[in-house]
Specification:
It holds the Pfam family GH43_C2. The protein has 541 residues and is an all-beta fold. The protein has 2 domains: 28-254, Glycosyl hydrolase domain, family 43 (Tachylectin-2, Chain A), CATH 2.115.10.20; 333-540, Jelly Rolls (Sandwich), CATH 2.60.120.200. It is built from 1 helix and 42 strands.
């Protein structure tokens, strides 16, 4: 089907949630003309700030990411679930404006957030050099008022012991011509008793300023709070009916963690809210798929408050009165025929540059030069894609000739440096090329020596990783057909909930991403080895 607008009289009938499955949190939604864009958080993964495009709010296609080079942000050394938090995409004066936060820490109430702004005439770039904004707090966004002024909002962090670390929402003017903040910041809103006030977005509608915030934390207590004022600086009155959207107290709902929303209006005056959700495998259990993006229809009567039916996330909602615009289906198999990685792939802590990602030297192959160990945070060599369904698989064919135990190449089910499963080729002490399996659960590694497979003489090895609900299974093909390893591994350790670690009330680790399936090459001795992957097939079952 053509990627041009489908010429049909009937509109797409419904939006099925989540519209972006798998790790796609903190959505910022934007309409420019007839085009809709969703920007989501990416944390320690490149390309940073993943963007999707739609013409009908039903069908979405990935455009890749905006932060594709270290010039825009250097993630070397970035901690797990640090990096790019809650981007904000806006349009003004014929330019896209992207604000993003680089959060460097969690410990002792310090976040060390740094906010940046880049602009571009087109969503595909080229993007300007970053403007360094303040580091007062994260979840920054840009509001363009009707009088032509622009304002930066963010949560206001307070590191002082005994204080509320979420000190409210602050606002400061941004001079677009001088490309800098001007004047003093002002505290705009201190939130509701739900607390943890963050994720601000400001809108002008019906003679009011409308402040949308996320509250309650980004897990089970999450919610979207609405407040309004006749004046930009307030005071802001909170909706007396409570949150616009939440799943609190409703463990029966399929979509949990509903919160962190942003609004969009169609040309016909229909309103929708994009927001994050999670789909736990059991009631209030682990969310292996991470935090995802959903869309709800908003009723907004003149003079009244915005409303979502029931105030809870719906699995399916009425789509806007727009022509249906599906996109071509993504091919299941990537044959690595293009000179650049496809939009489905992400790379860990370093962009996909020719010094380690090579799609040219050997046509129709992805050559990955080995990198650091699983705990290395400067130059890992992991190419991965988001897990988008509870039942899915990734299959590949690899050619690799290791010379010792320091050289590994294979397939992984991955969450972060501490939580992963890895099936890989390496060299045993007796000189054989072998397949080995290794798991890490909160940094505690488990080997499976009884499952070691002799792969000596196999020039091409098929590898498969399968997510089957709460378990992960691996299989291999040495040329005589597929054989499954006789072990079921715990998929639920690859989740936000499992990754989080609180010590003495302080977050020592956090989990904000989601599970990945990937191709992983390690060169622990720095000997310059590489592995060639002939293809990669992803399927949802």
């Amino acid at each position: 089907m053509s990627t041009e607008t489908v010429d049909v009289a009937t509109a797409a009938r419904s939006i099925r949630n989540p519209v972006l499955a798998g790790f796609h949190p903190d959505p910022s939604i934007l309409r420019v003309g007839d085009d809709y864009y969703l920007a989501t958080s990416t944390f320690e993964w490149y390309p940073g700030v993943r963007v999707h495009h739609s013409r009908d709010l039903v069908h979405w296609r990935p455009l890749g990411g905006i932060i594709t080079e270290r010039r825009l942000l250097d993630l070397r050394g970035c901690g797990d679930s640090n990096g790019v938090w809650a981007p904000d995409l806006s349009w003004h004066d014929g330019e896209f404006h992207l604000v993003y936060s680089d959060v460097a820490s969690f410990a002792s109430g310090y976040w060390d957030p740094q906010n940046y702004l880049v602009t571009a005439p087109d969503i595909g770039g080229p993007w300007s050099d970053p403007v360094k904004l303040h580091g007062h707090g994260f979840d920054a966004s840009l509001f363009h008022d009707d009088d032509g002024t622009s304002w930066l909002l963010s949560m206001s962090a307070d590191w002082r012991p005994g204080r509320d670390r979420f000190g409210g929402i602050e606002i400061q003017q941004y001079d677009r011509v001088a490309r800098r903040l001007v004047g003093r910041p002002r505290l705009l809103f201190t939130g509701t008793p739900a607390g943890l006030t963050e994720g601000p977005h400001l809108y002008r509608h019906d003679g009011w300023y409308w402040l949308i915030t996320a509250e309650g934390g980004t897990s089970w207590e999450h919610q979207v709070t609405v407040a309004r004022s006749r004046e930009l600086f307030g005071p802001y009155e909170v909706d007396p009916e409570g949150p616009l959207l939440t799943s609190v107290g409703r463990p029966d709902l399929r979509l949990q963690k509903a919160g962190h929303g942003s609004l969009v209006r169609t040309p016909h005056g229909e309103w929708y809210l994009a927001h994050l959700v999670g789909r736990p495998y059991t009631p209030l259990g682990n969310c292996v798929l991470g935090r995802e993006t959903a869309i709800q229809r908003v009723e907004w009567p003149r003079g009244g408050w915005p409303r979502i039916p029931g105030g809870v996330p719906a699995d399916e909602v009425v789509a806007p009165g727009l022509p249906a615009h599906p996109w071509p289906a993504e091919p299941a198999t990537d044959h690595f025929d293009d000179p650049q990685l496809d939009h489905c792939w992400s790379t860990l802590r370093r962009p996909a540059t020719p010094d380690w990602i090579d799609l040219r030297s050997r046509p129709s192959h992805l050559r990955v030069h080995g990198g650091q160990s699983p705990v290395g945070r400067q130059t890992p060599s992991l190419v991965a894609r988001r897990v988008g369904a509870t039942h899915c698989s990734l299959e590949t064919v690899v050619e690799f000739d290791p010379v010792d135990h320091r050289q590994l190449a294979g397939i992984t089910a991955y969450y972060n440096t501490l939580n992963w499963h890895h099936l890989y080729l390496t060299r045993a002490d007796d000189g054989r090329t072998v397949l080995e399996l290794l798991s890490s659960d909160s940094g505690r590694r488990t080997a499976y020596p009884a499952l070691t497979v002799d792969a000596t003489g196999a020039a091409r090895v098929g590898l498969r990783a399968v997510f089957d609900g709460p378990v992960v299974r691996f299989a291999h093909d040495l040329g005589a057909g597929w054989r499954q390893l006789p072990v079921e591994l715990d998929a639920t350790i690859l989740s936000d909930e499992h990754a989080a670690l609180i010590i003495d009330g302080e977050p020592a680790a956090w989990g904000f991403t989601g599970a990945f399936l990937g191709l992983w090459v390690q060169d622990l001795g720095g000997d310059g080895v590489h592995a060639d992957f002939d293809l990669a097939t992803y399927r949802e079952h």
